[in-house]
Amino acid sequence: MKCLFEITTYLTKKKLPSSRSEDSDDIVHDVEDARIGLQQVYDALILGKERVVDRFLRQYKTSAFTERITASGETALMVAIKGGHGHIIKKLVSLTPPELLAFKEDFGNTALHVVAELDNVKTAQLLVNKNHELLNICNRREILPIHLAAIRGHREMTSYLFSVGMKDEIHSSLLKDADGEKLVFDLVAARFCDLALQLFYHNPELVFDLELRSLLMELLADNPSAFPSGTHYSIWESFFYNC
């Protein structure tokens, strides 16, 4: 018992080590240098933990921009867009090489598809300004980002993608027959008929698509105000009213 008492007394008198020992910095560095897991990265992107995202970028280097974070093959940028933390989204867009912004997940969607579906116009502007070709990239279902925006009824996003898409009429997918026809259907279904009429103006061949014209006539019958008569669209508006 005396021996046990002496040991206990010695231990209680002995100075305890500081909470920040000489080795604590080494421990911090060890944690920082440890290979970060993709689940950690996903959580950080969703929760907006920029320090963890920075570790991921530092450790994975260029492959960070194409690393598939989720089971469906989404990249860090795509997950960040869904997380909605603007500072992280902006950082990832600025650091990603333009050509890698076109990277697709398993369903063929690019980051712009994700943005279009979620109606994040500011991020769409960042992406398009860095890689304009994103506007013309279809997913596996042959759907463009603007199709998704129209299908979801996102007026502002659809208008933005339409305006920037029509700036380059020579290369714009909006003027290709299949993409143009589908877009007209989507625009009319969303009641974005002013945009549909603009598309007819730039792609007159669509006017003679009988199925498309039938859809428009059906819409006019159900909703006469869909094409405002006070809006000036020259010969195209007259065509629809007199058809």
From TrEMBL:
What's the superkingdom here?
A: Eukaryota
Task: State the protein's name.
Answer: Ankyrin repeat family protein
What Gene3D superfamilies does its record include?
Ankyrin repeat-containing domain
